[in-house]
Amino acid sequence: MRKWKKRHKIMLVIGMVTMASYLLALRLPRTVDWYRGYLLPIGVNTLARLMSLLPCSVGELCIYLALALLAGAVVIGLFCFWKKGRFRKFARLYWEGMLWICIWVMATETFHCYILYHASTLEETYLAGVDPKEEVLEEVWQMLAGRANQLSEQMERDASGAVVYDGDLHKQCKEAMRSLGDVFPYLKGYYPNPKPIAASDFMSQQRLAGIYFPYTLEANYNTTMYIMNRPATICHEFSHLKGVILEDEANFFGFLACFCSDDPFLEYSACLSVLPYLTNEVRRTLDEDTKSALIKLNDWVKQDAVFLTEASWKKVEEKAVVETETVNKMTDAFLENNLKANGVADGMASYSRVVRLVLKWYVKEMGDT
Questions:
Q1: What is the phi/psi pair of residue 71, to 5°?
Q2: I need a surface site. Which of 27, 206, 230, 244 has the fewest CB within 10 A?
Q3: Same domain membership, residue 142 and residue 100
Q4: CA 345: distance to chain centroid?
Q5: Which domain holds residue 147?
Q6: Is there a single domain that holds both residue 80 and residue 216?
Q7: What are residue 221's DSSP bridge partners?
Q8: Which of 209, 225, 234 is nearest to 316 (CA)?
Q9: Do both 107 and 183 map to the same domain?
Q10: How far apart, in whole angstroms, are the C-alpha atoms of residue 221 and residue 196?
Q11: How far is Cα 218 from Cα 192, in angstroms, rounded to an integer?
């Protein structure tokens, strides 16, 4: 009985510390910067390093395990109505085990994700005071569209015209992220191996390129999506792993790490990762005469700027248990509500704010301030 009470006290303490830490992040957001720089790396150097020993995504396996445990809890609950004695004791232990899992998820989600929404933003630190002029959008388009056209001609392709890559992508992405550490210290240090998701077809139905699991500190990516999406996606998820939780900032670091890489494959992925957002901004803000004078994307770029190829989409739809439209709507609703619950007022629209960050970066690093 004493052990039982002691375990409950430990649960209570963990819950109280977790809640207190989140409230502290709300009241004193600058403490989150210190946490991201000094305490979060402890988790990356321990839990993430341990998870990296396994080739599969432990976070994905945990989701399947959670579903099985929930089904088991329902069955056990039904049996408890007419079974007594030892079975009920087993049921209590089973449910307590599930409670421990819930506490683990709550604590890791809070310390590895939720409180990090309140860290200082790039526009408050690195890009503070930078104000792009109207013509900067044109300049950035010309730079990235022109570079994408050049790089598309350099890519190795198969008989169908799809890009192929025979380098060590994981290693290249790690090095690309570490190279940003001189300017952004919280990006320094150890990076685990990114994990391919086994259920990538289902992930494609959700229109998800990658996912970060806070409870296992793993960066995961979709293997069904077209290969040109992988470098920027992996670096995006690596950014989350290092405490960059805002999606526009993770998009920016995914772009910047790949764009500054010496590997043309990564650089091309960087261009493709932001061109759709830039395209929308160009269409929205520039007049017709200005748009007509801009560099046009060549056919290779247009072909490579896809989430999935037509052949891949066909395979996904053939194997789909639930319609893609339904899955996508449910995922969008979840992401929208999750982002807004964590203070991101514009929800999924925040992804597109990467354009503003790229424009400010261009002015700061390559243009006239």
A1: -65, -40
A2: 27
A3: no
A4: 18
A5: 136-365
A6: no
A7: 196, 210
A8: 225
A9: no
A10: 5
A11: 8
